Amino acid sequence: MILKEFFDYYFGVVDPEVLEIYKGLVPDAPDLAAAYADLFSRNDEKAIAFLLEFHNATARLKEENPGQAILFNVNHNICFPFFVNYIWQAISDDDREKVYQATEKRDLDAIIDQLREDRNLRNWFRREIGSHLCQEDLFTLNEIIALQNFSSGGESSFLTFVYPRVQKMQGRVLDAGCGAGFATLVMSQYLQVFAVDACKARLERAMALSGMMKKGEKRIFPRVVQLIQDELGTIDVECQFPGADTLLAGSSQEVTFTEGSIAGLPYPDGFFSCINCLDVLEHTFEPEKIVQEFARVLQPGGSVFITAPTRYGEVEQRIWESIEGTLFPAMLHMHHFDPQSLTEMFNRNGFEEEQIIPFDFMDWDSFLDIADRSPAQELADELRAHPFDKVALQLFAVYKKR
Ligand SMILES: C[S@@+](CC[C@H](N)C(=O)[O-])C[C@H]1O[C@@H](n2cnc3c(N)ncnc32)[C@H](O)[C@@H]1O
To answer: Across all residues in the chain, what is the average pLDDT?
Structure first.
């Protein structure tokens, strides 16, 4: 539903030449927004071919005309009023009253104009209002965020850390928060994969790819790998992907896909020999509840693979948020961990640490450089008091169930 609402809005506000690009991808559609919403909720071949074209077109638009692209949380983007409207419907009357007082306006369009122009106001809004969205709102917004990129973020970490281990494993694996299904697809060459995600648009993408692989159609996969690599490159993730032929050298086993929250898994106790959960815990409301659920569905001796941002990842995120004046936490991260807090959470729930690898390093001077650009100057001062060489923004961890 949100996708149809979103496309109705978006096609109504883009420039005519941009609209022509989108019309060209689905010629002869009587209702363009309905056709797009439909294609994003389907998992047939036509839909996946469309998705690749769509994401290539949006990548070009982001480069050449970012104000007209689908960009989440960017105040001078044409989608900005849509996101403010969404939050406005989701928040309480008390919070609306706070906004009326802070802006001295009672009309939403005027409030949106003011938010567009005033970074301090957006920073206030994020701290006081935008951080209080509930889990369901987060899941809903996620459907639109999934339109920004074909990739779902963890592909490079999967290839670096998990892929070499998976090739030696057997049994059933849970891809918890599988996103667009890259890890699911690759793992299905070796293991029986059960993939769960709360975002329908991403899950349909994963199902479409998996369906094509099952039919032996590996032709499309090189295009998928190329697109993901291009997208990660634009957000400065260094990645050297093996070719599609290597990644999908075997024959894929059937994957079971489920739309839903990993906080309540529809599987019996001890069902899995391994769980892959990359770039997911930070997005969830109750990570501890999820770790408990992992402990339940994992067999003794089974492993969980995790990636998550560190506390410094959080600081970096907070700095960018305040520099840009985002309306609510960028990328919808709700939590961050350091090696100790992550391990304690897993220890409390019946796991032992096998390995923790910090990665995604930034040197200290670059870190301070961005801190200096932040309007939250006390943060830069605090950092300056405890300098060190370089900063790891993310963690990869392996925990074994006792
Ligand atoms: C940044 S993406 C990572 C996806 C994938 N694991 C990867 O490595 O690319 C985070 C994913 O977690 C999913 N997610 C967040 N909270 C979830 C929850 N409670 N249950 C299921 N999926 C969730 C989101 O829908 C999204 O697809």
So the answer is: 90
How far apart (Å, rounded) are the C-alpha atoms in residues 335 and 332? 9
Angle at 20 between CA 16 and CA 21, to 5 degrees: 120
Number of alpha carbons in the 13 Å side-chain half-sphere of residue 103 = 26
List the structure tokens of 289.
């509840």
User: How many other C-beta atoms lie within 10 A of the C-beta of residue 211?
Assistant: 17
- CB atoms under 10 Å from CB of 204, counted, come to 25
Q: Where are the domains of the chain?
A: 1-91+133-148, 155-401
- Of ligand 1's listed atoms, the one at least distance from the Cα of 261 is 20
Degrees, nearest 5: CA angle 93-71-62: 165
Report the predicted TM-score, pTM, of the whole model to 2 decimal places: 0.90
- C-alpha of residue 83 to centroid of ligand 1, in Å: 20
Best residue among 185, 265, 280 to mutate for probing ligand 1's pocket (most ligand atoms within 8 Å of CB) is: 280
Q: What residues in the chain have per-residue pLDDT under 50? A: none
Which pLDDT value is given to residue 283?
A: 86
Dihedral, 358, 359, 362, 363 alpha carbons, nearest 10: 60
pLDDT at 1: 82
Q: Does the beta carbon of 331 sit less than 6 angstroms from any atom of ligand 1?
A: no
* Residue found under tokens 């648009």: 201
Of all protein residues, whose CA lies closest to atom 20 belonging to ligand 1? 261
pLDDT at site 142: 84
For position 390, what pLDDT does the model report?
87
Residue type, 318: R
User: Distance from first CA to last CA of the chain, Å, rounded?
Assistant: 43
- Render pLDDT for 35-70 as a digit per residue (tens, 0 to 9): 999 999 898 888 988 999 999 999 999 999 999 999
Q: At the top level of CATH, which class does the domain 155-401 belong to?
A: alpha beta
Position 137 scores a pLDDT of: 85
- Give me the pLDDT at residue 259, please: 95
Q: How far is the CA of 365 from the centre of ligand 1 (A)?
A: 32
